[in-house]
Design a protein that fits this description.
Strand order of the largest sheet: 1-2
Order of helices and strands: EEHHH
Number of helices: 3
Distance between the termini: 70 Å
Number of strands: 2
Strand content: 5-15%
Structural class: mainly alpha
Shape: elongated
Amino acid sequence: MKTKFNVFGMCFDWRVLVGLVAIGIAIAILVPQLTLSALPLLLLAACPLSMFLMMAMMNRMDKDSMSATSHQSVSSLPTSIHLDRDAQLAQLREHLQQLQTQHEAIAHQINTLEQSEQRSSGSSSLKADYHSKE
């Protein structure tokens, strides 16, 4: 379902507009003498309220996706309810060993990249020194 639409190049959430129309109708019924003075305020409130609602929805979607990701990573552990305690421990230890191996490989790649960066910056400073002496 589409929750926003564009009016005059501005993006509004339909729920905000429906709420503002309802407030406008309530003001017109309850306090008719304030209807004309409340109309510009209601129109002015549409944009910030729409932005607030959209930000809240995006924040909720981010939280939902993060919780789904964390749930998925926990559920991907190689444990099974059907295995006994010793078999589960063995699987978890094997998984931990695999993760430690991956960690070491990543640390090695980082060190290699940092060393090559230091060498390239060192050689460029040597070249700069050489050219400044000429």
